[in-house]
Amino acid sequence: MRSSAVHRANKATSAQLEACISTSRELNGTRLHFAVKTSSELSDVESERIWNIFESNMQLFYTTSSFGWDPRSKKEEMFHPHARLVLCERRDDTPSGSESIPSESRIVAYTIFRFEREAKQDVVYCYELQVTEESRGLGVGKLLMGSLFDIGSRWRMKNVMLTVFKANDAASAFYKSLGFDLDPSSPGYVEGDWQDEELDCDYVILSKSIP
Questions:
Q1: What share of the chain is helix, strand, coil (3-state, %, to 5)?
Q2: Strand, coil or helix: what is 27?
Q3: How many CB atoms within 10 Å of residue 136?
């Protein structure tokens, strides 16, 4: 059944979505700027940077999973026409006499999401949350996830959902710390059991209600 809320949300402009979030933050002396874009609004440099971060963080997980490493299909998913991105860029002050941060290096984290209908509920589905290694520990990931809840609340979504590899212990611990739990749609769902070793599946589906 088609959802009117999802239909409306998918027609929202990047500016309308960006109005739902805080676009400027400072963490441990690092100035950050957040922007919302559709895949079609990305420059070639931005798309390449986004892919390079993903490849650096996730290639090993995919190579050793049942999905396998398939850059072509993954790029189609990440840059799908319905995909929206919240980009996090560094805006550090540049010391006098030094070179500025190259534009292609300013993106240090991002999340990719879509508005979808899952299990009869309108959801923000988080397809990716990626942070560069040097920017971890600042709280950027938490801010990006918070932006999904802010956007979802404004556009009347019910949950934020995502998929995570069982082997990605750091990601699992992060999402658990934010209050995510195993979704009933997860393969072999058993309430409270995130790591069912008897199930021949290397990922779980998590969700959290939007207040």
A1: 35, 30, 35
A2: strand
A3: 13
